[in-house]
Amino acid sequence: MPKVNLTHFETTLLFAFLSSIVLGVVSKKTDRDRLYYGLYCFSYFVVAVFVIAWLMKLGHG
Q1: Cβ distance 9 to 52 under 8 Å?
Q2: Domain ranges, ordered by start, for the chain
Q3: Quick one: pLDDT at residue 29?
Q4: Cβ neighbours around 1 below 10 Å, total
Q5: Residues 6+ apart with CB under 8 A from 35
Q6: Which of 14, 17, 24, 37 is buried deepest, with most CB atoms within 10 A?
Q7: 3-state secondary structure of 2
């Protein structure tokens, strides 16, 4: 089995992507609503990652 080396950022984006797919599929009824909600969730995940990263950077000096 090939070994996959992902950075922390890549792993976080992969988690955000997969979580957004699941949230879109289980929470909306039409395909269009699923797509828009999945993109909405993904964008908020990415924004949250950057905000938390900056807070951690400011907290550690």
Answers
A1: no
A2: 8-60
A3: 93
A4: 3
A5: 24
A6: 24
A7: coil
